[in-house]
Amino acid sequence: xxxxSGAPPHxxxxxxxxxxxxxxxxxxxxxxxxxxxxxxxxxxxxxxxxPKPRYRTRMKMFWSDSGLYIGAEMExxxxxATLTEHDSVIFHDNDFEVFIDPDNDGLAYxxxxxxxxxxxxxxxxxxxxxxxxxxxxxxxxxNLRTAVQLQGTLxxxxxxxxxxxxxxxxxxxxxxxxxxxxxxxxxxxQWRINFSRVQWKLDIxxxxxxxxxxxxxxxxxxxxxxxxxxxRPERWGIVHFTS
Length: 243
Hints:
- 4% of the residues lie in helices and 35% in strands.
- The protein contains two helices and 15 strands.
- It has helices spanning 31-34, 172-176, and strands at residues 12-15, 43-44, 57-63, 67-75, 95-101, 109-114, 120-125, 135-136, 145-151, 163-171, 190-199, 203-205, 208-210, 218-221, 237-241.
- Strands 1, 2, 5, 6, 7, 8, 11, 14 and 15 form a nine-stranded mixed sheet that branches. Strands 3-4-10-9 form a four-stranded antiparallel sheet. It has a two-stranded antiparallel ribbon with strand order 12-13.
- The radius of gyration is 17 Å and the shape is globular.
């Protein structure tokens, strides 16, 4: 797993093995989450050359007999989401995104996006876009479980909110489908993984949030890519599965 020239150093995370969570509700105060370390705060996708994100984002991970658990906490004074249909282009809203390459080959990797309405978009990339790849929307993470908890009021500009948190459980069988490596992993294995938060600046017009036309979104990530492109798996972070 050599570093690529021009890319910032990748982040690493030690994911413990813990019992399953029977019911997800978006609350990260469960005993399993309290046993997991927080990641570093997210940074701009390009790295230290760009300003520090306006709002804090951080994540946690652990693994179990059934799958991979991901929790994230996002500071957000203006909770906003509009998309309610599964497999919508979720990053048109503010969102949280997961990228997973179980066999570290840069091919056949999963992407999952979720907004504050708990609407999801899961897709498979056979190869990165730069190599001519396309997203396979028809691919589904079977038995995916997600939950969102809001610390504030959604779509209400009259209030100042604290943020939102998410819980995600991805079953091993969904990742086995896209891997030539060992799934489930064993203690000591390493996978390429990264996380992104897409954030839009909003105007308030007639008491409603409005996304100005023509603006560029912010991309805040766990492990910086060095470029505005999440689809470079060789630049993702590394999760170490520990016992």
